[in-house]
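Review this today:
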Amino acid sequence: MASVIPRNAWTRGGPDKGEINPMLPVHWITIHHDGMDSFIATDYASCASRIELIRMGHRGKGWADIGYHFVIDRSGRVWEGRELCWQGAHVKNHNEGNIGILCLGNFDLQKPSAAQLAMLERHTRLVMKQYRLSPASVRSHREWPAAATACPGRHLQAKVGTIRRHLA
């Protein structure tokens, strides 16, 4: 996807290929927030650092790489996370054929920016088109059975239904 910032712009680390599964045919898109502290930065360097912090946290859990395929920052830039050829690690027991899109910030504590929401909708539409998915294939993390999570936070969750309606 041409407008996506490649992962080599924010990390030199690659996935542990011995601990990663190939992506199966894509059937789902799942929306997340990072759930850490509030994040309001929009500059390139701060966003790249936050994404690397998330990747290192995931590696610290023994995961092969950052769990999400795409990351959207508050200025509306889209960053490549885990390469699409690899299965994600973002919804326990539901990662097969599931593309993870992360929005930077904690949306229990803050609201997503207008630019972030606009790009989330636009990028989700592009992914849906590429994989021939319907709006019914788009879920937030908490909408998965037995997810037991507040992700993507109350302020982003409140927008997910609207985004799905716009995608229809």
Notes: The mean pLDDT is 95.
